[in-house]
Amino acid sequence: MGTAETTQPLGLEIDGTILGQTRLSEVDGPARRLAYCGYDFHPLASHATWEEVVHLLWHDELPTAAELGQLRERLAAARPLSPDELALLRAVPTYGHGLDAVRTALALLAQFHELPIMQPETILEQAITATAQLPTLVATLIRLRNGKPPIPPDPTLSHAANFLWMLHGTAPDPVAVQALDTYMVVLAENGLNISTFVGAVVTSTRNDLGSAVIAALSTLKGLAHGGANEHAMRLFLAMGEPEQVPAALAAFVASKQRLMGVGHRIFEGEDPRVRHLRLQSAALANRPFTDPHASMAHAVAEAVAAQVQQHPFFVQRKLHPNVEFYSAPLLYQLGFPLDYFTVAFACARMPGWIAHIAEQLTQPRLVRPEARYVGAQAREFIPLAQRG
Question: How would you label 298-322 residue by residue, b for 16+ Cβ within 10 Å and e otherwise?
């Protein structure tokens, strides 16, 4: 492929490259610190609801009780899908990967609405519908795949509680609601990551919200961003029981495979979000399960984490469990299918995507990075008949 220069990574892959400014989150990798709009992440993850964080990201302030109530009412009112939209979802193939199904469904549903070009003054109005309806769409597709009828949303429930209600059709217990709500707070925002950047790029082309969201969602199928939780859980299930972890992990390392859910591009040391997901996963593990795999999910994850903390391969490379590691047993215990883990991530991250999209709309320029040319120079064109 020419000179050695062509093997160098793209400039956007280099850590520390500044592509813009944001008021939304401060990600300090060396200090293992994360803040949303100036608020330290840990109190938010421990005490704030997901709806409070949505308001914070969209309005740069934590809501008053009245503002929070209004946001909840607006989200609840926007959750239902029309009969025509539900009929269209029934036609979506159910045998493929969950993210493919959701991406296809979003594109099809866009046919029902003439989505306008995004504008700064109207983007949050559109955001309510997009944010409220994604869990409805996800739960509906999961139930249809399982041969079950869709469950209409319950306007009296919180966003997390309603998601679980639509998924299972039974009143969710407080432990499960708290676990999912915390998960969604933890994943709501994390700077200019790949999916957020892609959404911002599409926004800069003066596009509609559906296109930006579908583009951002599409990045999550990759192993390096969003998809790690699914593959981490598949590994946990293959290990079976905690007692089998040491030998299984040793064989895994010896085969030079990458352990999904371990290591982070930005955070040095343990990802600050991990502690909250670990606590919620542990709380779920104390409940009774009829599925033996679900009852073992957290224990296997803990056994893997313990091995990672002492195994020379991971210790020498300073690799620690990241946010995807403990989101795997958490989502599994909540009853999400493995191939819908990444879509659950999208449901949580939607307010962060929207907030960055709103910021991008205030910038009139197209996001168009350039690459340095390193190919052949001054070549002379030879007509086809003269080429040997």
Answer: bbbbbbbbebbeebeebeeeebbbb
